[in-house]
Amino acid sequence: MLKFQESIDLNRFSLNRFSQTMAKIAFYEKPGCLNNGKQKSLLQAAGHEVLAYNLLTEPWTIDRLRPFFRALPVADWFNRTAVRVRSGEIVPESFDAETALAVLASDPLLIRRPLMQIGDRYFVGFDLESIEQCASLEPVDFNKTFGETDRSKIDLETCPNQD
Q1: Does position 14 have pLDDT exceeding 50, yes or no?
Q2: Domains, the chain, ordered by start
Q3: Tens of pLDDT, residues 44-59
């Protein structure tokens, strides 16, 4: 949603800048996760209101999880650093959607993080380009915050620890 910020520049016959309204973001995280902390900080630095929830204690159901995963292949729903995935006990590529949803609802450590809801949009993982489609990340200085100006080189999703 855009909000009018400045008046019309009559000398140039153009509309001046608009600014995106700051979003309220439901953010489902694993408490203590380093990357979830960085992700929340980034969203807050951009001026968004982040409502953090514990992914591990939420009462997940198949129907409640489904909107987060709709646009992704089933294998991309899983946390690749989860112990059960790394050990080979869980093979994400072997699941159909309904079975995967049931498994994820019963063991939230297997869910790829974070889960986010911004208005009527749902996200799994932290893809900067997808998030910016509905929540601006301006005025975040990526070089100052992450020591990198090329956003494609900033990995805010891969967990350095095993769950």
Answers
A1: no
A2: 24-153 (3.40.30.10)
A3: 988 899 999 999 999 9
pLDDT beyond 70 at 135: yes
What six digits make up the tokens of 101? 């949803």
Nearest alpha carbon to residue 112 among 98, 125, 127, 131: 125
Asked if residue 35 has pLDDT above 80, the reply is yes
Active-site residue among 23, 33, 82, 85? 33
Query: Where do the H-state alpha helices sit in the chain?
Result: 34-45, 62-69, 83-86, 97-106, 128-132, 142-146
Cis peptide bond prior to 67, omega within 30° of 0: no
Q: List pLDDT tens digits, range 43-96.
A: 998 889 999 999 999 999 999 999 999 989 999 999 999 999 999 999 999 999
Separation of alpha carbons 66 and 50, rounded Å: 22
87 token code pair: 């050990």
Query: Which amino acid belongs to residue 92?
Result: P
Question: Looking at residue 14, what DSSP letter applies?
Answer: B
Residue for token digits 């297997």?
110
Closest-CA residue to 130 (of 142, 117, 146) = 117
Tokens of 161: 């620890």
CB environment 65-77: b (16+ within 10 A), e (fewer): beebbeeeebeeb
| Catalytic residue list contains 159 | no
